[in-house]
Amino acid sequence: MIENKEPDENQIFSEKEEALIKNAFARLDIKLGVTDETPQYLKKSFARKLDKLLITDNSFYIKWKGFVVSLITAFSLGSLISYFLIMPAMVTRSIDKNDKAVSNESINPPTTTSIDVQNPEDYAFMLISMALKIDLEINIQKIGDKTILYIWPFKPDDQSQEEIRQFLKLSPDVGGRVTAILHKKS
What 3-state class would DSSP assign to 87? Predict the structure, then answer.
């Protein structure tokens, strides 16, 4: 049996309790495979790892430089590839030498006409309807009390465009782009 003697003032455990605790730790070390050489091995391993951390080469600088170079290369190649892939998809209009409207548009500046009407929005709606029926392209812009219509391509002496020419007060020989400014009558 274990005697429970009162420990001295400076001692926390009695001698037998200390022996039991040391014996328990020794058995635990045997189960874990810890030997007397283990602490020395761990110290050497830790020292080797510290030595590797203290190496001051420019490896981070070189890696950073490589990252920047690869990023710039990727953006450059990406922009070139996208340019060549998207370029064929862009719709371009070819100029036919026999098309008088296109040739007039490229030679002459756009024709501008100014018309005073009671209600510019209604008048613009009628012009848009007429333009769409005869396959003219039209853009509309509203600035204050003015309504501006950009209509193209007019072909000189085209009979299908005669009705819209009368509404815009244009002569039959006008071709190309027409800018119509609709003012509200005062």
Answer: helix
The domain of 140 spans 100-184
Q: Could you give the number of structural domains in the chain?
A: 2
Cα atoms found within 13 Å of the Cα of residue 57, Cβ hemisphere only? 6
Mean pLDDT score across all residues of the chain = 77
Rounded average pLDDT over 87-108: 50
Provide the H-helix boundaries in the chain.
15-32, 38-53, 59-86, 100-107, 120-133, 162-168
Classify residue 7 by its DSSP letter. Answer: P
33 and 109, same structural domain? no
58-86 pLDDT tens trace: 666 667 788 888 889 888 888 888 777 76
Token pair of 20 as six digits: 């039991």
Residue 33 counted as domain residue: yes
Q: Quick one: tokens of 65?
A: 């430089």
In 3D, which of 154, 165, 159, 178 has the Cα closest to residue 103?
Answer: 154
